[in-house]
Amino acid sequence: MRRESDLEAEVERHLREAKVKYVKEPVVGKTRPDFLVTTENGDQIVVEVKAWEPSPDATARAINQAHRYKELSKAAAALIVTAVGSSLSFPGGGVVPVSAFVAALSGLTSALAEKRSRRPVESRPSPKKKVFASMPFSSQYDDTFLVAIQPAALAANASADRVDHTGRSGDVVQQIKEMIKAARIVVADLSESRANVCHEVGYAEALGRPVVQICSTPLASLPFNLRNNQTIQYSIGQASISNRW
Q: How far apart are CA 79 and CA 90, in angstroms?
């Protein structure tokens, strides 16, 4: 599997070669995309990179994320860029392989210029304080991160990160440990009592990191040592947890 960092570097190379104005990992509105591109006409496009394996579920997931990034950033458009030769592509939904990225960006630039509806958005550097989001590896929890956890972290002048197994290579467990060590706080989504999340909570507590527990499934099903901790319960599709920690 291709590393997401390598794919990000390739996207950045394309941006430099195309002499496009961009900012890397800015805070834009209530989100923090990989890139914010400003076209020659002043339109702004959010670009997010995903080195996911192609599948119908991954395509639907990418389309949803393109929609969310546009909505949360208030930018004129959003693109999700996937790996070279990937069948994970849906240009109409804002999902393109890196091989088609420059052409898609050019097409968007022209389309936005015709609309003459520029809405400049403010951006700022990504905060240095980190929040680690420990979550199930499932698309149904994407909105929990994008709409609730990340905006809450940004409002507290921090930036949330998570590990997505479909976008990583190498020793994922070691990557998670390093991210927990670097975090000031851990938000743990205990929905479905996933073993990986329970393990990460234990590791965070051993390091003395504060843990905020959230859950969308019955609390009675949680392991007893976690069930006794204060847990914010929410429903899938509910983003109001963002103002409760």
A: 10
> Average pLDDT over the chain, rounded to whole?
89
Is 0.70 surpassed by the pTM of this model? yes
CATH code 3.40.50.450 for 127-243:
yes
Mean pLDDT value of segment 215-224: 95
Average of pLDDT values for 206-231? 95
Place 93 in a pLDDT band, splitting at 50, 70 and 90: confident
Return the ∠ at Cα 106 (arms to 34 and 87), rounded to 5°: 65
| Top-level class of domain 4-115 | alpha beta
